[in-house]
Specification:
The complex is a heterodimer of chains A (107) and B (123). Chain A is mainly beta and 107 residues long. Chain A is built from no helices and eleven strands. The chains are: A mainly beta (107), B mainly beta (123).
Chain lengths: 107, 123
Amino acid sequence: DIQLTQSPSFLSASVGDRVTITCRASQGISSYLAWYQQKPGKAPNLLIYAASTLQSGVPSRFSGSGSGTEFTLTISSLQPEDFATYYCQQVNSYPLTFGGGTKVEIK
Amino acid sequence: EVQLVESGGGLVQPGGSLRLSCAASGFTLSGYYMDWFRQAPGKGLEWVGRTRNKANSYTTEYAASVKGRFTISRDDSKNSLYLQMNSLSTEDTAMYYCARYILVTSLRYSDYWGQGTLVTVSS
């Protein structure tokens, strides 16, 4: 199975901050990586697919980059509604796997 | 508007069975792969399994943790997806989500998710 390691697991930041979350895969997955945002009590919401393609309707302050084994999700200017948990997911091979999550909280 | 609505969750004893449903609307189910995911209380996301679309003969894939106990099926005429769960253990306690999967050349992602249905396995 492909393991995804997200860092940090917890992040405290202020509104307006630039935030970067890293996801490392245990083996190469090309660009078969997605990022999801999840708020408490809600289903995950797709932000980025194919490592860097912004899902329709997602604000442009979100961006993704990377390929192979190292990926990043960047929020250019953190907004109050962005405080949530973020997960990366690999869709390169079965079983599909997720990173452990990064909880972004208000500083 | 695409919508996915899960139902069928509840409290079940260890060793018991439960069948979850996912009602799809706003799109033609037969054209899509569909996944089930779950999330144990306070934990991360876990993929449970997949059913491919009609063009790919509705074949299925499962996570090792549920293989042989869970079965994914679908009734495209009813625009519905199902998850039959047998031999349940306390480790299966989770919120269960269905999600639509997009597979277009090199683009692969789950774009729509339901709101989830909670399964609690406890005596």
